[in-house]
Design goal:
With 211 residues, the protein is mainly alpha-helical. The chain is 71% helix and 6% strand. The chain folds into 2 domains: 152 residues, no CATH class; 52 residues, no CATH class. Strands 1-2 form a two-stranded antiparallel ribbon.
């Protein structure tokens, strides 16, 4: 194990190499932690809820965090073994593993394994955002009818929220069907583009130009 004293003497290339090795080790630890939690759930003669409460007490997690971690661990071990192996090998991290888990849980087991096999090589070399976007495409391609049904179920959850903030600022949150939300963004963006300023200033310029 490398000490902190050794780290401060490293060259820049050595530091980068060391950080990459730490990420692989962290991923492997997360995989082993998942297997251990899933094993505990098998060994304990009571419900998953009580196992989560035990983990919360022993590991000083909140009950909600413990329940989520345990549920993810069991599902990863039982349903996505290839993802678990990739995590253990350090090819993906826990965030990507959970992203794969959460996005594919709407599929039946056979389709889930199919999407898993497709996404793992991609996830190993891409950001979480790109992985999430590709997962959405792959899930919709694997189960187009299900994608339509899920969309219809979510439409009633559409919402618009305005939250005042400090110093006279505010946040506008819009959640709804893409075909509805996209025009709202386009109007704001077009307003900002009229100011002929850099793209990163579009929103602020649009706000400045409103009465």
């Amino acid at each position: 194990m490398i000490s902190t004293g050794e780290i401060v003497t490293m060259s820049d290339e050595a530091v980068v190499h060391y950080l990459k090795s730490l990420e692989r080790e962290r991923a492997s630890l997360d995989a082993r932690s998942a297997v251990a939690m899933a094993r505990l759930a098998v060994l304990r003669p009571y419900t998953q809820e009580y196992v989560a409460d035990e983990l919360a007490a022993e590991l000083r997690w909140t009950p909600t965090s413990a329940a989520n971690r345990l549920g993810d661990a069991i599902e990863l071990v039982e349903s996505l073994p290839a993802t678990l192996r990739a995590l253990d090998a350090g090819r993906i991290d826990w965030i990507r593993a959970r992203t794969i888990l959460n996005h594919t849980k709407v599929l039946d087991p056979a389709l889930r394994r199919q999407v898993e096999a497709e996404i793992l090589p991609y996830a190993a070399t891409r950001t979480v955002k790109l992985t999430r976007e590709k997962l959405a495409r792959e899930v919709a391609k694997a189960d187009p009818d299900g994608a339509v049904e899920r969309h219809q179920r979510r439409v009633p959850d559409s919402t618009v929220d305005f939250s005042p903030d400090e110093d006279g600022m505010a946040t506008l949150y819009v959640y709804g069907p893409a075909e509805t939300v996209r025009p709202i963004f386009d109007v704001l963006d077009q307003c900002a583009r009229g100011a002929r300023r850099p793209a990163r200033k579009h929103v602020s310029e649009c706000c400045d130009s409103t009465p």
